């Protein structure tokens, strides 16, 4: 309940900072979302530069192909930004970990418990610093949990017998020739994003059948 009130407060604060009430009032009649976005574009907020930048970019985001507003405003993916800002990265991961703590009571201890019972292994994709998997691994020692996340998120985290982290390399042995080009490309593009922030260590390793390849080529 407290979280809900906090969310409502920050939405309200954001609406005030964006002058949404003033825009609607001066519009003089009911306003559509696209009219509101356009109005935000020409009505910069006086006090807060970052809010102003977000407001100015809202319409570009709506019109453009960039997936997130963050990417439109900063020209960099949010995860890459976190990689470049260790302090914020840590706070973000801690915030996500708090969310896991909140969920524990009803996921592990109450009515959802049976979902995990009897499992032998689990991969927590985009599992952050593994807080959720750590809780699962402690509550269900029989489950081998593997957390897959970006290298800067899982670096130096303590592992246990049944909790491991992976991020450096992805091995696809005899997988791609069984997929269509479209699915194969989709997977490769995603993996490229995932390893991009891992410098020399990030790798996608593919072992597969190549037709008509010259003998000395090992790409
Ligand atoms: C919103 S957080 C959720 C974290 C965790 N699952 C939780 O609920 O607490 C999204 C997570 O996805 C991770 N992530 C984003 N892109 C990724 C990628 N390409 N490969 C692996 N993890 C990725 C981020 O680092 C982040 O930890």
List the helices and strands and how they pair.
Elements: H1 2-17, H2 20-27, H3 33-42, H4 49-63, H5 69-74, H6 78-84, H7 86-109, H8 113-116, E1 121-125, H9 131-139, E2 144-148, H10 151-154, E3 163-166, E4 169-173, H11 181-196, E5 203-207
Parallel strand pairs: 1-2, 2-3, 4-5
Helix pairs in contact: 3-4, 6-7, 7-9
The structure holds S-adenosylmethionine.
S-adenosylmethionine (SAM) is lined by residues 79, 96, 99-100, 126-128, 132, 148-150, 153, 193-194.
InterPro entries: COMT-like (IPR016461), COMT_C (IPR001077), SAM-dependent_MTases_sf (IPR029063), WH_DNA-bd_sf (IPR036390)
GO molecular function, one term: O-methyltransferase activity
Protein name: O-methyltransferase C-terminal domain-containing protein
* Structural class by SSE content: mainly alpha
* CATH topology label of the largest domain: Rossmann fold
Reading off the top of the CATH hierarchy, the class of the largest domain is best stated as Alpha Beta
The largest sheet has its strands arranged as: 1-2-3
SS elements, strand count: 5
Give the biggest sheet: 3 strands, parallel
**Rg:** 23 Å
Instruction: Write the CATH homologous superfamily of the largest domain.
Output: Vaccinia Virus protein VP39
Oligomer: single chain
- Order of SSEs, N→C? HHHHHHHHEHEHEEHE
Instruction: Provide the list of bound ligands, each named once.
Output: S-adenosylmethionine
Number of domains: 3
């Amino acid at each position: 309940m407290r979280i809900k009130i906090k969310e409502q407060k920050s939405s309200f604060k954001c609406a005030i900072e964006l002058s949404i009430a003033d825009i609607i009032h001066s519009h003089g009649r009911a306003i559509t979302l696209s009219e509101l976005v356009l109005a935000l574009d020409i009505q910069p907020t006086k006090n807060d530069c970052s809010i102003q930048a977000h407001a100015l970019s809202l319409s570009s985001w709506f019109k453009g192909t960039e997936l997130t507003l963050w990417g439109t405003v900063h020209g960099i993916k949010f995860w890459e930004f976190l990689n470049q800002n260790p302090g914020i990265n840590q706070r973000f991961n801690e915030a996500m970990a708090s969310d896991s703590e909140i969920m524990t009571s009803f996921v592990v201890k109450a009515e959802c418990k049976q979902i995990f019972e009897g499992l032998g292994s689990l991969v927590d994709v985009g599992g952050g610093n593994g807080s959720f998997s750590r809780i699962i691994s402690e509550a269900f020692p029989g489950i081998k949990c593997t957390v897959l996340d970006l290298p800067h998120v899982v670096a130096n985290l303590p592992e246990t017998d049944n909790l491991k982290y992976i991020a450096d390399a992805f091995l696809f042995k005899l997988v791609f020739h069984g997929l269509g080009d479209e699915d194969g490309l989709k997977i490769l593009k995603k993996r490229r994003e995932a390893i991009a922030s891992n410098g020399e260590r990030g790798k996608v390793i593919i072992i597969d059948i190549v037709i008509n390849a010259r003998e000395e080529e090992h790409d």
